[in-house]
Amino acid sequence: MCGMPSGESTRASVHEQDQVRPTDEDRVAAAGSELIGGPLGRRALLGASWWTPVRVIALVAIGMFALGMVQKAPCYNGAWFFGASSQYTHACYSDIPHLYQGRGFADGLVPYFDKLSGGMQYLEYPVLTGLFMEVAAWLTPGSGSIQDQEQWYWMVNAGMLMACAAVLVVCVTRTHARRPWDGLLVALAPALALTATINWDLLAVALTAAAMLMWARSRPLAFGLLLGLATAAKFYPGLLLGPLLVLCWRAGRWREFGTALGGAAAAWLVVNGPVMLFAFDGWSKFYEFSHERPVDFGSFWLILAQNSDNPLSTDTVNTLAAVLMLLCCAGIAALTLMAPRRPRFAQLAFLVVAAFILTNKVYSPQYVLWLVPLAALARPKWRDFLVWQACEVAYFLGIWMYLAYTTSGDAHKGLPTDGYHWAIGVHLLGTLYLCVMVVRDVLMPERDPVRRSGDDDPSGGVLDGAEDAFVIGPAAYPARHAAAHFEGPQVEWGRTGAAGGSL
């Protein structure tokens, strides 16, 4: 068949029949597929051709990334350089060209070692991100005007970030082996196109996705090493160790967690150690900046500050935000240990990062990239994903229109403060909505789209199908195993425990 030996054809056929097609279980996906000819037929054999799901989704992601680059064209052609408000009215702002000169790359300064002119003193980014920025500077032609160099710097970074986007979608597509088409949620996410080249977050996002793929394949050391690298590029990936700790506690998988933790610490130290040793002041700038940074865009703290005659001090906000985050983490831990069935790793990863975003004192528009792959793995339902994405697009437009309003002087072009507060509220409500849906899936696993398809925890690696070793609350009586009995449309779960009960 199609020039393939019969043995390979049979394996491809079995593989394709085993895959879950979103158009079979998701009405929004089925309706959307009509744009390209309707749902995939059950006799179609994509595995027997070059057009495998991974390749299709990677090409779609590259196409969406390219559309995002086109969306930045008004700024590339002048708005970054010749008008403060026009880069906001066109919603095409990017940190990348501005920081080429502003952080000393145009002058050949070495990040963390050389002081900058002005008040910043040192680069305020984590070490691996700083290395990424420096490599892009090496590849940027040094001839021409500074505007030409900044354009080239943005273009070089865009090419490198496009590679990160491709890695991201490939890893997400391969994490849930029976659900490769869920990777389309990431590839087609409007947020990916709109925010991918605002900053360098895609580096950490791609490394985190690669780490989760390694954990899904029961390779805790590789997971730890990649997660350590991701944390060396951005702080948030380290948060995933928290829910993983509680999951491994419930499943009694201490050795695997210890291996992952050791790998993460080793990788982080290898990247950060030399800079800490030889340029401590430059290395610590990121952490000092994060602590000293006042309440900023996108957070509910900003709404409180701008509507208060006596706003809270930065130290007070830091303390309150930390307390709120710890309370959220405690709630996630309790949910993990008390849920009727052990939650999936992707569900808890999404919840902990979403909690950090919701409680943090700043929300830059590109932070949505942190959640996109986790959302696709945690709740692969197109309706809920698109509702959340619509809220994020509204916020994306809202922040640029607000900045246009504040920089346009007496013209007042854009969105006033009250309107911007509504945009923040839309972002917060959209994220909370998706969190509620994920928590509902945890409490009612029969409604979880991944488990309804017949899987336990495909992103869980050694946790997938593992028995519980520690459970508290109602989940402990009588359930003592990962796969508590329930019926879904395609599979019936059940297991008989040592006590002879149906679990």
TrEMBL record:
Keywords: Cell membrane, Membrane, Transferase, Transmembrane, Transmembrane helix
Main location: membrane
Membrane-related topology note: Multi-pass membrane protein
Transmembrane segments: 50-70, 122-140, 152-172, 184-215, 221-248, 260-280, 319-338, 345-363, 420-443
Superkingdom in the source lineage: Bacteria
Basic and acidic residues compositional bias, start-end: 13-26
Entry's Gene Ontology cellular component terms: plasma membrane
Record localization: Cell membrane
Region described as Disordered: 1-26
Name of the protein in question: DUF2029 domain-containing protein
Species of origin: Streptomyces fungicidicus
